Amino acid sequence: MRKLDSYLIREMIVPFLIGTVVVVMMFQINTYMYLAKTFNLDNVPTSAVYQYIFYKTPEFMKMTLAVGTAMGSSLAMTRLARESELTAMRAAGIRILRVVLPIALFGVGVAVLNYWLMERIMPVSTRKANEIARSAAILGLDSNSFRDNAMIKLGSYTASFKQVRKVGTTKLQIDDILLIERPGDGKIYLTTAKKGFYDRGVWDFKEAYEFIIKGPDVVAFEPAKRFTINEKIVIDQFFGGTIPEEQTLEELK
Questions:
Q1: Owning domain of residue 170
Q2: Per residue in 66-89, pLDDT tens?
Q3: Residue 190 to residue 196: CA distance in whole angstroms
Q4: Is residue 54 domain-shared with residue 24, that is, in the same domain?
Q5: Is residue 70 located within the same domain as residue 188?
Q6: Are 226 and 134 in the same domain?
Q7: Model pTM score
Q8: Beta partners for residue 190, in sequence order
Q9: Contact predicate 118/139, CB 8 Å
């Protein structure tokens, strides 16, 4: 019976691997096409694109392992039936359930592998993929990708921008800026600026004015020719926080 088990497993391995690899490659190609249509990849390093797709692969495999198992088992059983090997096994007194048993155990093994991938590999690789996406997102966006009247968290400030435009490979121009800070002393600090720029983690605001408000009164007003904040853009503020694919089963509870 061990020979039967090893024979059936060998029959499944090749179609299982082919099915899994082919479907994974389809997902990878689909991802590249999506990136090419959504972003200007001329401004994004090629290595960043390939690394992103590589780190997304475990997420693809959670869907493709089941496809590979179905393809491997169906092709193996079809070949056994087509070449009358299944009939010969039954004539030798082997029950159909005994023939199916190693295939079922193979499926259980793949399910365990899939669970391990989802718990141990996929959260880490998805986080790395999203880190690459965040770092390269600005490079691949064009001027039409930014919405007007955007509001984001910027260090200790809540920032509101009327308009954001891309003016260089890594540089953004921001118009009509309002920064709101609540330090907890009962005062509200408002900083306004007509124009500002963002470049690789540095926000530089020109012709800024600071108002300090306490209750209904403006208690201080101070013009500042230049106002700078060191804070990288966090893409999660636009697209949401941690996604389920970045978390383990325990973290999702």
A1: 144-236
A2: 999 999 999 988 988 888 888 888
A3: 16
A4: yes
A5: no
A6: no
A7: 0.62
A8: 180, 211
A9: no
Pair 26, 111 in one domain = yes
Average pLDDT value for the chain: 81
In this structure, the answer to whether residues 103 and 55 fall within a common structural domain is yes
Q: Which residues on adjacent β-strands are paired with residue 224? A: 208
Residue 65 lies in a domain: yes
Task: Record the tokens describing residue 34, joined without a space.
Answer: 């999506």
* Residue 47 Ramachandran class (φ > 0 left, ψ -120 to 50 alpha, else beta): alpha
d(CA 158, CA 162): 14
Judgement on whether residues 160 and 226 belong to the same structural domain of the protein = yes
Domain-located, residue 253:
no
How big is the chain, counted in residues? 253
Which amino acid, residue 148? D
Q: Does residue 252 contact residue 128 with C-beta atoms inside 8 Å? A: no
pLDDT tens, position by position, 147-168: 667 777 777 888 888 887 777 6
CA distances from 25 to 49, 54, 140 (A): 15, 11, 23
Residues 118, 192, single domain; the answer is no
Helix, strand, coil % (nearest 5) of the chain? 55, 25, 20
- Cβ neighbours around 26 below 10 Å, total: 13
In whole angstroms, what is the distance from residue 165 CA to residue 142 CA? 8
Residue 201 pLDDT exceeds 50: yes
